[in-house]
Each structure stands twice: as C-alpha cells, then as structure tokens.
Amino acid sequence: MLLIYCPYCQIERAEIEFRCGGEAHIARPSDPEKATDDDWVEFLYMRSNTKGIAAERWRHIHGCGRFFNAVRDTVSDEFLKVYKTGEAKPDLEAIAREAGK
Amino acid sequence: MSQPFRTEKGGRIDRTGELTFTFDGEEMHGHAGDTLASALLANGVHLVGRSFKYHRPRGILSAGSEEPNALVGVYRKGDQTPNLRATQVELYHGLQAVSQNRFPSLGFDVGAVNDLLSPLFPAGFYYKTFMWPKSFWDRVYEPIIRAAAGLGKPPKNPDHDTYGNLYAHCDVLVAGSGPSGLAAALAAAETGARVILCDEQAEFGGSLLSENSATIDGKDPAIWVAEIVARLAAMDNVTLLPRTTAFGYFAHNFIALAERVTEHLSDPDPRLPRERLWQVRAKEVVIAAGAIERPMVFPENDRPGILLADAGRTYLNRYGVKVGHKVLVATACDTAWQAAFDLADHGVEVVAIADLRESPPESLVSIAAARGIRVEAGCVVTGTLGRKRVRAALLGRMMTSGQVAAGGQIECDALLMSGGWTPTVSLFSQSRGKVVWEAETGAFVPGKSVQKERSAGAANGLYGLQASLTDGYAAGEGAARAATGKSATINHSRTSGGEAGTGGTLGALPHDRNASRVKAFVDYQNDVTAKDVKLAVREGMQSIEHIKRYTTTGMATDQGRLSNMNALQIASGALEKPLTDVGLTTFRQPFTPTTFGLFAGVSRGDFFDPVRKTPSHDWVVEKGGLFEDVGQWKRAWYFPKNGEDMHAAVERECRTVRESVGLFDASTLGKIEVAGPDAAEFLERMYTNPWKKLAPGRCRYGLLLNDAGFITDDGVIGRLADDRFHVTTTTGGAPSVFATMEDYLQTEWPELDVWITSTTDQYAVAAIQGPKAREVIAPFIEGIDLSAEALPHMSVKEAMFRGIPCRLFRISFTGELGFEINVPRRHGKMMWETLAGEIEKHGGTAYGTEAMHVLRAEKGYIIIGQDTDGTVTPQDAGMSWAIGKNKFDFVGKRGLERPDLKAENRKQLVGLLTKDPKIKLEEGAQVTTLENPATGTPADGHVTSSYYSPALGRTIALAIVRNGHALEGKTLYVPMPEGSIPVEVTGTVFYDKEGARLNV
User: Could A76 and B450 be called an inter-chain contact, meaning their C-beta atoms sit closer than 8 Å?
Assistant: First the structure.
C-alpha cells in the first residue's frame, strides 16, 4: 500500500484513503463547441500511459476530499512531487533527472 | 518413554517433563522446546511423508521454514490444518499430527508405483499428456489432475478460528533475530528509535541457539542472546515479536507480518486469535534473514535420514537430538565439519567426512584426526541405499579427468550434507531490489536498495559470526540514523570462533552411475530431478522462467530457496551459458505459506461486507417481506400474504397501487444537496436539462451524461430556493455521481461558488403512490396546502410531518398521484410505521422493488444500468426532450455531436409486445429481424426489461433494438431454444400514455 502526501492536509496517509483520478493536466476544452471531433476524442480517451515519471490526479477521498496532482514513477511507485490542483504541470524530465531516473 | 535418539544432556528443551503427542496415531513423547520434527527425530522417526509426484519415502531435511519434505497435517478442534512444516510446529501436550500423500499408510503407499513408472512422468508430463482430445480437458483430464494434485487434504469445516489485525508504525523494523538481527535491533533501539524485531521462530537467536563452538564476549552465544533479548524487552521503544514471519514486503516500506499467537499452545485462551496480521509501515527495514544451506545433488539424495548438515547440528545442539547413530557427513564446505565434530563429541559415530574438495583445510583435517574421524577428500556421494531410511552410501573418487571412480560403500543411518550457503534474499527481492552475483562466495547477494531497507549478516552474503555482528550493528545504526537522524554509541561485542569457512558447490555432482536410471533431486517438494532440468533445456526452454514452469523447480512452498541455485547451475551447464546469463526468478510474497484466515481477518460472515438497512427494515422482517440485495442495501422485494408466490404478491401490490395506494421505502435513493450562489449554474453544466428558470418549489427530471455523451444517471431534482437544490440519484449511482460532481467542481470549474454534500444517509424517504395518496398523508402533513393547485405534479415544499420538518416532493415513479416524504433519518421508522398504519385504512399496501419495477416499466420509465448500458444516448433512449436546447454547454453536449453518436442504425429503446400476451420474454434475450437466423448472425438488440403487467393483463418488455424507433409496428423475433417468439415493436409507454393519472 502506497504512502501518499496530501498537499492540503499536509500529511502522509495510506493509499486506502485516496483514489487515483488518472492522468493529470487533461483539460476539458473551455469552449466545447469549437473543439473538433479529434480534439474531443483526444480529451476523452487518449492517455499517455507512461512507464516511468507521470503526473496523475489523486483525490483524498476519505480525508479532505480534495483533488491534487502528484508526480509518480509508475515503475517504482515512488512519489517525486505533489502539488495542488491549478498549479502548473512541472517539468517531468527535470524531476526525472533530479531523481536520477 | 524412550526417546532413543535423545542426547544425555544439553539442548534448549525442558527435560523436566514429557509431552505426549501422536504421529499417524502412534503415541510418542517429547519435551517442551521441541518442534514436531525434533521430537520425531528423538523417537527415531525419519520417514514422515511421501513425495508429491513419485510418492517416494521422505524424511526431515532441514530444521527451518524452508523444509520441503516434512509437511504434516495437524488436528485441532476436530479439523486438520494441512501442509504444516514439522520443523515449525512447536510440540505441545496432546498434539495430533498425520502424514500426507500416502494411501493406505505411510509405510505402504500404493502411489509409490509412480516411482517405478517414473520414465513415464518426465518434466512437462502434464503439457505433453493432457492435450488431446479437447473433449477430455474438463471431463477426464481435469478430474485426474485435481485428484493427484496437492499433498494435504483441505479442512472440511468452516474455519473455527479467529484472526486479529493490527496496524503499526516504527522507525526500524528488523526481520530476523540471528546475530546480525539482534545487533541491528540493539543498535537501533539504543538511539531511541521505535524498533520492531520479529522472527519466525519461537525463540530469538537464530543460528546462535545451536552454536556452541564459538563465544561472544567470552560467553556461550545462547547466554549472550538471552542478555540482549532481556535488554531489548526492557526498552519501551522496542516491540518483540517471536513466532512472527515477515512474509511480505510491499511498496513504500509496508511490511506484512504473520504472528502465530496460539497454535503452539495445548489449551489456548479462546479469546485469543489463532494468528494476527501486522501491517507495519517502517521508516527503515533491516533484513537479517540469514542464509540457508544448499542440499547436494547426488543420486538418491532424498532418502529419509539424509539431512542438511547444519540441520543435523541444530537438532543436536538446540534440541538434544541425534539424527542417527552412524552418520556420514558429505560436504563441499567447511561449516559441515563442525557438525561432524559436535556429533562425535556427543558420542555419535561419524563414519566419515566425505569432502568434495581435493584438499580441505588442514586445520579441519587435524581436528577430525584428533577425534578419530575418517576423512575422505576428493570424495563424492554417488548414491544411497535403503528404502525408508538410508542404510548406506556409495562413495566415488573424483579423478583429475573429471570422471568419478567407484569408491566403495559405507554404512550409515544418517547422512548430513552441505553444498554451501545461500543468502535468503526473498524479502530483498520482494522489495523490488535486484540481486547481484558475487563470484567469491558463489552467491547472489542483495544489490542496490530500491526501498528504504538494508540487508545485514548472512542475508547480505557475510558469513562468520564476527562479520555478522559487525554488519548488524552498522545496519541498525544506519537505519536508525536514516529514520530519526539520531545515533548512539554502544559497545560492540567481540566473538571468538564461528568463522565463515570456505568452499561450496552448485549444481549436480558427478557420479559413475547410469544417468538415465538414477534420480538426483533438485527440488524435493516438487520432485524435480537434475535430469528434468536438463530435459527442459533439451526440449527448448531457454529462460530460467520457462525452465521453472516446465519442470516446476522452485515452485514449491519454499519458492526455490533450497533448489534455485542448483537448478540454475544445471541449466547453465546445459545451456552452455554463464550462470548469471541464465537469470534468477523473482521471489514473491508470501515468504512462507500464509493462511487465508490471516488475510480475511474479521472480514467474514456479517462483517464480510457492510449491510445498509433502510428505516423500514425491521417492519419488513416482521411482516414477512423478502429482501433484494441492491449493492450493499437490503431493499424490500415483495410482501407475500397468505401463501402467495412472488408472481401473485407482485400482481396484488401493483393492482393495489393503481387502484388505491401503496407505500414504498425510497430511502436508498442517492441524495445530494447542492447549495450556493452558483448552484443553478453548476447543475446547468452537469445535467442535460435547463435549471436556471426552474422556480423554487418545482422539480424537474434530470439526466446525467458523461462527456462521451452516454447516459450515466438520472433522478428528480427539486429547487428549494434560488441557491439550494435537492438532487436525487439512482441507488447504485449515488457515490459515483457525487464523485463526478466533485471532480468537475474542483478541477474544471473551480470558479463556481457551490457546495455539494451527500445527504443519502441523512434522509429517510417514504414514497406514497396511488389515487388515495393524498388522503393517506394529509392527516400528518402540516404547514402546506396539498391540493393539486397548490402542490402540482413535480413540485417540492418544506413542511412538517407529525411535527418533524420534512421535504415533501410531489413526484411519481409509478404514473400515479404520488408523494415522497423526506424526514431526518432518525425519524424514518416513525414515519414508516405511521404511514404503514394509515394505508391499511385505505386498503393500501406496502410494495417492494419488484412491483416498483413493473409499475415504472408500464410507464416506460427507464432504469439506468438495466435499460441502458453505458452506450446509450438520450436520443437512443427517446429522451431528447430532456436536453436543454439553448444551453452553452453541459457534460456530454459535445460528446453527443460526435459522428458515431449521430449516425443512423444506432440501437434505440423501444417497447416490445409478444404476439402471445402470455409469453414473458427473458431479460437479456436477443432480438433479431429474422425468425430463425443462422448461427453466428449478429443480433439486432436485446431485451432489457420484461414483466407481466397486471394493469394491462399481459406481458410487456423494453428492449434496445437497432434502428428501433423506425420499426414501431413491425414484427421482430426473440429466438429461444424452444422456438422463436414473434414480438411487435411499440413505444415505451404502455399505460396511461397521456399521463392523466399523474395530474389529479
């Protein structure tokens, strides 16, 4: 069971309190009418399914209830960074370099 | 009372009293401190089981949890637990153990014919034999394989034991309490770090408990152990867990421990659990799991009486048991010599030490000489004699050519062997660390740590007592510093003796026998021989993973801790590849077999899954109503009266609702309070329907899509005020709808000023439906006008129900005049009983989910997940009316514009009426355009709902049918085994199409 740091509660808690919400930074087009079919399919279905350093949404569902983002190494399950919803996507390559991945 | 193989004195057993136990019904005696294995050996019993495949007689091989042969069943409370390792079963008074995999008896086993037929059972036997014909797979082969599989018999009764569960946190977890584990635990504990020390054995000390040729700080090692354990036990920051196996190393330093609490006791406190699962989150882990000795792979190396050398030494020094009276020691390394010396010192005749090496260390040879032990150097065991107990060994002389020359026969009643040592890297491997090959010691040792752990001592490839202690101290100090930042200085103990020694061998040993006629076992428990591994390579297996699965080597309960290195070396030779290129299989959890009860814990019976009950639950039970499981909810299904069957009861309930009035518990419906200045805007974006213009006090049916455009949920939403809505969802959809709303609110539209709160459990809901519904509720409702003018269909008002504030909806899921009253949950029982009493006066009835389904289907009201399946759009369901035409956006709006969702030929929801009104279609049955389509013809749809409708006096059905809306009036077919059923396509509303009954 993973140990996850909630940036809102500012505390580490067991995975059982959280739900993974899939890949982070998939923004819903703000004007859906202007989105092409391809745009919409991209938004709905296409995910990078990264093996390695990935940004994911997590929700502290049995805690504060808030969504936040986390950078996780999907191979080792190591969490390299957590940050609040709305904060910019970090430079994953830089994080990977720093972690020696 | 004779225990013929017990030593005169010594050992850690309590000789002051005797314990009585039985093995296969025969009464024997042992002492407290014995394991079942040591007690059997003390009684001269080596033959304890039959092997898995060839049913060969097998004896105790080891003294630890890696034991492959001595698997026994132990009776307790009238049932037996199979496959316990006799080496781990602590002796208690009255213990009843039985051998396994033999018929009719251990001494005479008819299955042993397999041994003679063994040329018929080579590696891959199953894959080669049970192939064709296909029709034999499940009817012939599977029963044969199942009957032959497994060793012990599973218990017959439900598990009568209880199991505990604990969560724990610590700074440093130390797994293993040998010299390095104790040193690590002490070093860490002295810094003040919170330490958990666990060991799978009953006593702490590991190898030190059987070490009597070395000293620590000038003391007997066992005394040193007692002092260290006493020091640790006195510290508040230390938790000591004997009989506790660290069986699983999971992500983020999450370690699972299995503590055996009562199984070693003759008469345990019934309040205590059999086992306790510890789920430990450790900041740092020290793996001090030690090393285990490798068997030597020579022909007939599996006879009872053949043991690992260190096991022989352990039985002697720790348990006071001699493994035989005439013992041959066969070895390739130094450590086994000490076993020979110790046995000789106890008066056991050591017939010879046969060392594979041409020149064993002179120091050892001279000690042997001093004891008068014959030493054979450059000598290999080439076979053994004796069926149920070894009685002689064949020796061979290693020639410089690599050949072996016959070297005569030597009589013995026990043979101790040692091929060297293998570090126990299982936990390290489970932590996802990769092992590295250390040529100097000929072993795989832990490589770079992936998690916060470090291995120490023999598990780290460091043998020798002083090296283990030093490594243990360093690991404990390092782990504590890493976990807490603190350190402390402690005195490090000094040792004398207990040197690591040299030597060791891997793989099958050379011999002068006919290779096709002899069996040299690599994996004892799975009966895999050196020949099998070579055959697997000849038959094309290249990878160790394939060889493992083809031969099953390393797939026994020890996961190859005994066999892997020998198998690898044999494969490496056969493949003509270096051993490191063949690869090592990965060790997985659990380290040793773990009971299901431990994992289940208290989650069984009533605690397996929470049960959610509605306020009417007790009343339903009292009235003889039946329940239906809907997720975790128990919902009243129907209420049979006077011996009615389900059909009759449901028909009566439906008629009563349509003719007078019915009462239904709707408390399970999901409820979400949406409040705030942007509440209407939020719902506008979530649901397809328009909400901004909905007046307070009115309700609207809401349809929820996902962004792909498919229906995911529905429910009535009432506007209580400009900034407050009462949203209802389906029973099953409540959690996901709430989570979806949170998701959009938090991550897509954080600018909206809205709060949402799940109130499903806060309200009890009674639905009163039928022409007399108003009369039923009128006496209890205060504060509002219930007339059709003041409270029309689809409206909501806050009122009082018998003095309790309530939210009163005028809505209907039956097509009749209907009300749904929401009161705080704690008043639900009062409300239900009040209304249940009242409807009786009006000739009404309580009704259950089955009648509810019939009534709604008569009206064509859909059930999400039954009439839809996640690929149905509002248009498909004939619900385009629910889409707000002028809305800028809502979840699913853009999705609905996708070409596939607007394409022709989509499957659409329709009604079906069978031509014969008595035939009720099967839900899920396929719908076709052809009366008798050829096999393989795709269906055009399927039946989603099907009932007998009392109101129509005939059957009705809903179905999803390709292009269904255009087929109204046409005839389709529902092909069934008994013949094709013709049906007419209709609209989805079967009853009161104008809705006149709603607006009264």
Answer: yes
